[in-house]
DNA sequence: TTTATCCTCCAAAACGTTTTGGAACTGATT
DNA sequence: AATCAGTTCCAAAACGTTTTGGAGGATAAA
């Protein structure tokens, strides 16, 4: 590997001059600069980012810390799409991306700070972390700039990006109400997720607007899992046969719900309308295809990266961003003829 | 940030001793070692990997270079699952993972070597690259250790991991033959993919074994895309109404094929049996659900990482690995009553 | 007592950059 | 002739580690 010294020697100048020539400083003659550039190319020289980072104390590297990067994530692709967004934005802005994945086992060995400092990242994007995760406290105490995905907390060095979950959920439920459904249940995620609380709030707001009393037994938790949702839906529908529509806090859970309903012998969507949340790939392929609230996960990642780099470069701008959802009508929700 | 010097000063020893104490060398008194460890912890010291890498000329970092990391990849999840495998294995072995994504635009700016050297990766795993990609030549010329996914090329510094595509394809087609299908067409990917050639070979081998002549017009290319596959399937089925079964070189293309057949008014699987390849999530959810040849993409990534680290650590072992496929029977393939 | 051996420790060099604070020249202005 | 202002260059320090090649002292062996 050619170093800056090799270039300097061959060009007959000092390393200082090579450095300044290549970095576009004005105090070097254009002729020497050209010569140096030529020689650099000739020697196939490219500066060691290691050495540079060491002296500049800047790595131009951000980390995407995901808790539980598992193959199961394939089903909703949340992580992957966020990753794509982060990657694209980081690329555009000249940042490197390192992937940091943890699980509870790893978390006991290394603190958040260690993880970040070791990997020499300047800032971090956090995805897939629960509100009761011990890392969350560390993030808030640490001075490493950080953007949280789907956890609305803000501080000097912390910002967040999320979706307008309440609005989205409200839209979904209003859609069902407008179709004439009176008994609308909800399959929620779990209470350690901000998004679940928000979506529940949206569900309640929609009912309230129509003066329909909130029935607590109409809301069950499916843990954002297909199987759990299937079980819970089965129980729910058995206990409350009057239910004619379901709002699921995730499409994946809606898949579980569909399966449960089918197993009970219901014809969908005639006997049960379902609206999901996320707009995952599957939702377009299931039978019936799923009406859903689309959220832009790619943009979630992209905006998170934008916010983070702003933070890193000391720009005084908003430290949070809330994205809007889009309603997508498919086959799974139709008028109620109950 | 505390440096090694701070620790040394506070402990009243030299930096050498701190370094050697913390790195487990034997030439330091256990009492001093304990003291140093205490102080290091107290100061929340963790060594700068930058400085270390600079002097050791080792970064313990591998790169996953993916060509075209796009959101469209969500549909088959190939990249994501490989990524999970790479990530898990790298984590186990103590390597860091940086994500390098390119596209044709970026490739014109930076050569493969530049990309790798700049990012200071010791080795690379290449995924999603076509056989006519200019990077491939560079890889072979470069001395950076590299493992190719699904491109069986080997050299001193290059290995590969792939799936036994021929076997898989042959199994698929034999399954259809055993169901009594006589006119089996194939929707292949494109000629710039090794896997396509292999799968075609498997298709031909299966026919050959049953003494069925190979009919060139029965094989069309769907470019691994759902839409293209849909168009090509429609054309194919119109031109050859006798076709009763389809082997698709990817599940995604099978989805396109299913759509094409449905649009033509065919009842599936009664009028057309289909077998795919990959076992993507969708294949279990489509109607009809798709019989397919499953390949383990997670393992592809995991094994690639294992091979790469072996290469990096100079172990004299096999530089390639071929994984086996599994056949999964679902609804889309049934007996031929033509 | 001398010599050899072991145990602890350390000063200095090295890794490949960037930045600081001038130096040396040229040409123009007084 | 002396001063000033550019322009172009450079030596040396700094970043935070690891490694090399001993030094010094204590103990054991001669």
UniProtKB/TrEMBL annotation, chains A, B:
<dbReference type="InterPro" id="IPR010982">
    <property type="entry name" value="Lambda_DNA-bd_dom_sf"/>
</dbReference>
<dbReference type="Pfam" id="PF13377">
    <property type="entry name" value="Peripla_BP_3"/>
</dbReference>
<dbReference type="InterPro" id="IPR046335">
    <property type="entry name" value="LacI/GalR-like_sensor"/>
</dbReference>
<dbReference type="Pfam" id="PF00356">
    <property type="entry name" value="LacI"/>
</dbReference>
<keyword id="KW-0805">Transcription regulation</keyword>
<protein>
    <submittedName>
        <fullName>LacI family DNA-binding transcriptional regulator</fullName>
    </submittedName>
</protein>
<dbReference type="InterPro" id="IPR000843">
    <property type="entry name" value="HTH_LacI"/>
</dbReference>
<keyword id="KW-0804">Transcription</keyword>
<dbReference type="InterPro" id="IPR028082">
    <property type="entry name" value="Peripla_BP_I"/>
</dbReference>
<dbReference type="GO" id="GO:0003677">
    <property type="term" value="F:DNA binding"/>
</dbReference>
<dbReference type="InterPro" id="IPR001387">
    <property type="entry name" value="Cro/C1-type_HTH"/>
</dbReference>
<keyword id="KW-0238">DNA-binding</keyword>
<feature type="domain" description="HTH cro/C1-type">
    <location>
        <begin position="3"/>
        <end position="50"/>
    </location>
</feature>
<feature type="domain" description="HTH lacI-type">
    <location>
        <begin position="2"/>
        <end position="56"/>
    </location>
</feature>
């Amino acid at each position: 590997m050619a170093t800056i010294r090799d270039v300097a020697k061959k060009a007959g100048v000092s390393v200082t001059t090579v450095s300044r020539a290549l970095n576009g400083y004005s105090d070097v003659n254009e002729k020497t600069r050209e010569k140096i550039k030529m020689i650099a190319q000739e020697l196939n020289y490219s500066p060691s980012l290691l050495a540079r980072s060491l002296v500049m104390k800047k790595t131009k590297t951000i980390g995407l810390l995901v808790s539980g990067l598992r193959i199961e994530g394939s089903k909703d692709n949340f992580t992957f799409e966020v990753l794509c967004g982060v990657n694209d934005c980081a690329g555009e802005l000249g940042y490197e991306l390192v992937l940091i994945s943890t699980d509870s086992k790893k978390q006991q060995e290394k603190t958040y700070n260690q993880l970040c400092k070791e990997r020499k990242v300047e800032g971090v994007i956090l995805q897939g972390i629960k509100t009761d995760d011990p890392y969350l406290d560390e993030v808030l105490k640490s001075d490493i700039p950080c953007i949280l995905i789907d956890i609305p907390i803000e501080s000097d060095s912390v910002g967040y990006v999320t979706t307008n979950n309440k609005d989205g959920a409200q839209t979904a439920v209003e859609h069902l109400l407008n179709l004439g459904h009176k008994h609308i249940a909800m399959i929620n995620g779990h209470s350690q997720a901000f998004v679940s609380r928000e979506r529940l709030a949206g569900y309640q707001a929609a009912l309230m607007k129509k003066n329909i009393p909130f029935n607590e037994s109409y809301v069950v938790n499916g843990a954002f899992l297909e199987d759990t949702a299937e079980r819970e839906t089965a129980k729910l529908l058995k206990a409350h046969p009057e239910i004619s529509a379901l709002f699921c806090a995730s499409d994946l859970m809606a898949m579980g719900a569909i399966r449960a309903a089918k197993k009970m012998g219901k014809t969908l969507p005639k006997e049960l309308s379902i609206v999901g949340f996320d707009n995952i790939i599957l939702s377009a392929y299931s039978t019936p295809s799923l009406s859903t609230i689309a959220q832009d996960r790619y943009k979630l990642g992209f905006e998170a990266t934008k916010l983070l780099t702003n933070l890193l470069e000391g720009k005084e701008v908003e430290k949070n961003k809330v994205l809007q959802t889009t309603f997508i009508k498919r086959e799974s929700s139709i008028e109620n003829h109950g």
